[in-house]
Amino acid sequence: MNMIKQDYAISQVPKNWPDILTIIEAGYPVKLMQGNQTIATLVPNNKIQKKQNFWQALQIFRQQFSPEDLKFDEDIFKDVRDRSIGREVFL
After folding, report:
1. pLDDT tens-digit profile of 19-44?
2. What is the distance between the alpha carbons of residues 79 and 11, in angstroms, rounded to a whole number?
3. Helix or strand (DSSP H, E) at 24
4. Is residue 38 part of a domain?
5. Domain count within the chain
6. Is there a domain that residue 23 lies in?
7. Which CATH number covers residue 22?
8. Helices in 26-72 by DSSP H: which ranges?
9. DSSP character for 81?
10. d(CA 31, CA 28)
């Protein structure tokens, strides 16, 4: 199994920069370490999730799925609500 080194000490970055770029271009993240602590992670651009607000996420969802495509039982919500009287309240 060919293991790719993905952790580099900060002091190793200048001399290993071409290798680091190759790893990132191949789609793998690279951690930059200072001692045992990760101080930065270089992530390929295609792996970064763009932040979306709720409305944008909803619009994307609606483009991917339509209510007609969803198949569910008509009675799926029939027993969702508790119809009992509930507890007695003393005022």
Report:
1. 999 999 888 899 999 999 999 999 88
2. 63
3. helix 13-25
4. yes
5. 1
6. yes
7. 3.40.1620
8. 54-64
9. S
10. 10
